[in-house]
Amino acid sequence: MAQDAAAAAARGPVVLTVSGKLAGGQDQVVQFDLAQLSALPQHSIHTQTPWYPGPRTFSGPLLRDVLSRAGAQGQVVHARAVNDYKVSIPVSDAERFKPVLALQIDGKPIALRDKGPIFIVYPYDHDPQLRSTIYYSRSIWQLKALEVR
């Protein structure tokens, strides 16, 4: 719940802000540092992407777990990157496809210059539907904020 996440305020530098329609009312804000995201259950996706020459393993918490931890109650997530790239992701994607908020690629933290520190990655190789511009565009890297609406 959002109250739990808010009670455990980020101690390190904030790397992800979740705002909007969260438990406790409209326009709530929950901030996460890397330690908090790393403390959530971690999942790995081994998949080919259009951004790397071969399959890579992306690891981090599931998008649905981060949304749940923040107390998200909306239908759409507006994701924003460090460079202000924005994309809308249906909340239903979080349950249906189980994308990860990758904090690591092949077991190593993702540097800002290499799409980090957070990169939303779908399991492209597990469903042919995901190998399309729609889902590739939702795979935002250098993620810094999620606004739930």
Instruction: Quote the average pLDDT.
Output: 93
* N-to-C series of helices and strands: HEEHEEHEEHEEEEHE
Poorly predicted segments: none
Beta-strand percentage range: 35-45%
Question: Largest sheet at a glance?
Answer: 5 strands, mixed
Principal-axes shape call: globular
What layout of secondary structure does this protein have?
Layout: H1 2-7, E1 14-22, E2 25-33, H2 34-39, E3 42-47, E4 56-61, H3 63-70, E5 76-81, E6 86-90, H4 91-96, E7 100-102, E8 104-105, E9 108-109, E10 119-121, H5 133-138, E11 143-148
Structural overview:
The protein is α+β, with helices and mostly antiparallel strands and 149 residues long. 21% of the residues lie in helices and 38% in strands. It has 5 helices and 11 strands. The strands form 3 sheets. It has a 5-stranded mixed β-sheet. The radius of gyration is 14 Å and the shape is globular. The two termini are 17 Å apart. The model has no long low-confidence stretch (mean pLDDT 93).
